[in-house]
Amino acid sequence: MHSSMRLSLSLALFLVLFNFSLSYAASDPTYQSLLQCLSQSIPSQNASAILFSSNNPSYASVLQAYIRNARFNTSETPKPAIIITPTEESHVSAAVTCSQKVGFQLKVRSGGHDYEGLSYVFGKPFFILDMFNLRSISIDISNESAWVQSGATLGELYYNIWESSNVHGFPAGVCPTVGVGGHLSGAGYGTLMRKYGVSSDHIMDARIVDVNGKILDRNGMGEDLFWAIRGGGAASFGVVLAYKVKLVRVPETVTVFRVDRLLADDANATDVAYNWQSVAATTDNNLFMRMLLQPATRNRRRTVRVSIRGLYLGDANGVATLLNNDFPELGLTRENCTEMRWIDSVLWWTNIDVGTPAAVLLDRNINDADFLKRKSDYVQTPIPRDGLESLWQKMTQLGNVGLACNAYGGRMDELSATETPFSHRAGNLYKIQYSVNWDEAGNEADMNYTSQARELHEFMTQFVSKNPRRAYFNYRDIDIGTTENWSYEQGKVYGESYFTGNYERLVDVKTAVDPKNFFRNEQSIPPRT
Ligand SMILES: Cc1cc2nc3c(=O)[nH]c(=O)nc-3n(C[C@H](O)[C@H](O)[C@H](O)COP(=O)(O)OP(=O)(O)OC[C@H]3O[C@@H](n4cnc5c(N)ncnc54)[C@H](O)[C@@H]3O)c2cc1C
């Protein structure tokens, strides 16, 4: 067929579908009620432009654009009736009040990285409030601060800071496509954590839409709500429009390194893992070390790879000298180290080739969405050598689950456990992330891989924090408890794992700001009844 003819046919088909979807939307009572309500505060052509009902030809692509876990992108996954995509703050206020009027739940999505899909899946009729259009960033280097809207990604924030200054950065996550909205409201950690703490420790102000649709800044919302949205997960309290954050200083040159040891080849590998546990949490604050423990195969035999990856806020000679003193078993040499600019270390940590222009951080689709499951734990006393030996056996037996161990200590020991809702401070040596990814669709694969992660988590009970067994809120894991009735007791199960004693204050804040519990999800903070 001639290409111009093909084009005309495609255009005609598109117009037919488009008209069909418009007329369908016009006959959909939910769409009509929402549009009518929104049109009372927004001009109606603007209101219809931000709504995607399920018959809109763009509905599927808008929905899927920010699904970051393929487990929640199947035909059985519950879908929103309508996706609302605000382009102005006033649209968010209108969406909050109108969703209540129409009687639908609202799921708020910024970057869509929630590991359990709680920002875009729900078991009852719901709308998604999708924040991706609200992503402006304004950097004020003279005051070392920035306003960042919640739909921005971490990569966009890092890049914008870098464009303004090569000696400033921000302590936040390793993956550049993570959204500011979820990440900062749930704490947010990365390679600057030992020097500067978590992202939410650097929030100076915020703009939030409350349950009445009012836009409030720090003064307007008061210190209790401002406390709650810095680590307690904003989804229980309102919709964050933007955060004002304090930037931090980074040197012009930093150093990264990676040392790998395979248990099958190296009798010393268990010593490296054992000693890492106490050194990584007590060494110089300028050094962050992550230990990755991964099942591997060597000469057709299953084994475990121990990888130590590090970022040092200084030069290569400095870190080589430091670790030859503190951690000689690692055998770090100057040759293992690469000096680079801080922004390039951001790329290095996310496995992007060094030398790639930093503007790659503006790409919102660097990573494909795998099927994945994550769980977390906190380790407070080193796992003994024989414990590590038994862990290697368990990991090789299971075959697919890896552990990413992230060192605490440093600044994390200096802040009190009640300063923000994020309470995992002094006393924690490191946090474990259990991680399994797969690419086969279907229930059988899902069952196989998720049960491996659960079995390893169960096995680790003997080595990790207890009463409560702690978990990191941003590593969402519905296995630790969910709620169907939003009672204080049900919330306490996961609430104390995520926030320990701060659960009580979060419940008080919730009771004060959203007593009827409009802002809710399967693991939200319930109001006191
Ligand atoms: C590939 C990958 C890498 C990661 N790396 C790290 C890391 O290095 N460090 C780390 O700490 N975490 C990391 N995480 C976890 C990540 O921090 C959390 O999943 C975070 O909540 C994601 O934020 P988001 O806006 O992208 O997610 P979303 O799925 O959009 O939101 C997560 C939660 O926050 C709520 N929410 C989102 N926006 C708003 C808003 N504007 N107002 C109110 N509530 C809102 C949602 O409703 C949901 O409950 C990673 C996750 C993934 C998938």
UniProtKB/TrEMBL annotation:
One of its GO terms (molecular function) is FAD binding. Residues 1-25 form the signal peptide. Its main location: secreted. InterPro entries: BBE (IPR012951), FAD-bd_PCMH (IPR016166), FAD-bd_PCMH-like_sf (IPR036318), FAD-bd_PCMH_sub1 (IPR016167), FAD-bd_PCMH_sub2 (IPR016169), Oxid_FAD_bind_N (IPR006094). Keywords: Cell wall, Disulfide bond, FAD, Flavoprotein, Glycoprotein, Nucleotide-binding, Oxidoreductase, Secreted, Signal. It comes from the Eukaryota. PROSITE patterns: FAD_PCMH (PS51387). Pfam families: BBE, FAD_binding_4. Its cofactor is FAD. It is found in: Secreted, Cell wall. Residues 76-250 form the FAD-binding PCMH-type domain. Belongs to the oxygen-dependent FAD-linked oxidoreductase family. This is Reticuline oxidase-like protein. The lineage of its organism: Eukaryota, Viridiplantae, Streptophyta, Embryophyta, Tracheophyta.
